[in-house]
Write a structure and sequence with these properties.
Layout lengths: L9 E5 L3 H12 L3 E6 L12 E4 L5 H9 L3 E4 L6 H8 L8 H7 L2 H10 L7 E4 L2 H11 L3 E5 L9 E4 L5 H7 L5 E5 L5 E9 L5 E3 L3 E6 L2 E7 L5 H17 L4 E10 L2 E8 L9 H4 L4 H9 L11 E9 L6 H5 L4 E5 L10 E10 L2
Parallel strand pairs: 1-2, 1-4, 2-3
Antiparallel strand pairs: 5-8, 6-7, 6-8, 9-10, 9-11, 9-13, 11-12, 12-15, 13-14, 15-17, 16-17
Helix pairs in contact: 1-10, 2-3
Bound molecules: adenosine monophosphate.
The site of adenosine monophosphate (AMP) has 13 residues, from strand 14.
Length: 357
């Protein structure tokens, strides 16, 4: 790979959802092309990428051909199988690097990593069976949340436990897979920092946004977050610490709980993040371009915020709001081209923008 990818170079993206789509658009704006690898059909990213491979992560010849056709590989989701990554990495660099993926793929490893850096997280304990869950409940009390160690997203793979008698049912609900129990955090707000680190080691963080979830799915992000200045600085500094510890290259989403004792890290995502979509209309250089710049070896761009923004996800039937939103002068719509609407499916988002000053 060249140090700085020139015009016409190709970035491979594992995953063809909306994040891959918006990464592809950002790459195109910089004169770069993308090749998306996605097992499913009708991938939202396929419509805007230069090339798409539709094949499974077990298809070695497809993976090899994909890796040989690109200059660097990145990803839009963290659960890419290790065997696929091993094959790709033997042929082309992967950015962000494998260590960030390894850590974020497993909630236990992630929590151990974060506490090892001196950062605070919710109290947690490993749970492999009912006996361990009962012991963990004794230690952490209720309410608490049982979370599968792997493959959780948008609130999936999580069971809230309000009384010790619910333990057996909770194990059944997660099908007995390895898990962790987390003490319930009494937070006043959820925020996230979208942080970037370039190949040269430069770090740039976007202003923290305040997130509202329901049923485990992000509904809204507001910037600026209503945060005391001290905590805003803490949030940005801790994100930088995580990036440096991983020698990270790319954009990362760091989700935090605001509590009376300060900030707790909920989870890290080694990719562009839904809570960073506001940057598309609130900053000169948004999170997608920032990620592409980083993985392409370019200097990071200016991520300073020039507007207050409320980002609202358009989920399922929220698409009925599109005509009304399209008529608003403050609304920037971003739709993902998904033709099938399903409850809970992210169909697009809107940024409601109020320029500063
Ligand atoms: P996660 O998939 O871990 O990000 O969890 C999804 C959402 O569940 C979070 O954004 C919180 O709103 C809530 N949640 C997760 N873990 C905890 C916790 N330990 N205490 C309180 N709420 C939590």
């Amino acid at each position: 790979m060249h140090d700085i990818l020139p015009a016409g170079a190709t970035i491979g993206i594992l995953g063809g959802g909306q994040l891959g789509r918006m990464l592809s658009v950002a790459a195109a704006r910089l004169g770069l092309t993308t090749h998306v690898y996605e097992p499913g059909s009708n991938a939202p990213a396929g419509e805007v990428a230069h090339a798409i491979t539709t094949a499974s992560y077990e298809d070695e010849s497809a993976l090899r051909a994909f890796a040989q056709s690109v200059d660097v590989v990145t990803y839009e989701f963290e659960n890419v199988p290790t065997s696929a990554l091993d094959l790709i990495e033997s042929l082309v660099p992967i950015r962000p690097g494998r260590e960030a993926l390894r850590i974020s793929q497993d909630r236990m490893t992630e929590k151990d990593f974060l506490t090892g850096l001196g950062l605070h997280v919710a109290p947690y304990a490993p749970v492999n069976d009912l006996v361990e869950l009962e012991a963990a409940l004794e230690m952490l009390g209720t309410p608490s949340i049982l979370k599968t160690r792997r493959f959780g997203y948008d609130g999936k793979g999580q069971v809230r436990i309000t009384a010790a008698e619910e333990a057996a049912g909770a194990i059944v609900e997660i099908a007995g897979v390895p898990a962790i129990l987390e003490g319930f955090v009494d937070f006043s707000a959820e925020i996230s920092v979208i942080a970037a680190r370039g190949a040269d080691g430069a770090v740039a963080c976007y202003d923290p946004g305040e997130n509202i979830h329901s049923e485990g799915i992000l509904r809204q992000t507001c910037v600026p977050a209503a945060l005391p200045t001290g905590l805003r600085t803490d949030a940005v500094l801790l994100a930088g610490r995580i990036l440096n510890a991983l020698d990270y290259v790319g954009v990362m989403g760091v989700e935090l709980f605001v509590t009376s004792q300060g900030l707790l890290v909920n989870e890290i995502a080694p990719r562009v993040h839904n809570s960073g979509h506001w940057t598309q209309n609130g900053c000169v250089v948004d999170q997608f371009e920032q990620h592409i710049r980083a993985v392409a070896g370019w200097p990071l761009g200016n991520g300073k915020r020039h507007a207050d923004v409320v980002m609202e996800n358009l989920i399922g039937d929220d698409m009925e709001r599109v005509p009304e939103l399209a008529a608003r002068s403050d609304a920037a719509l971003h739709l993902y081209g998904k033709t099938e609407t399903r409850p809970g499916r992210k169909m697009g988002h809107v940024n409601l923008v109020k320029p500063l000053g």
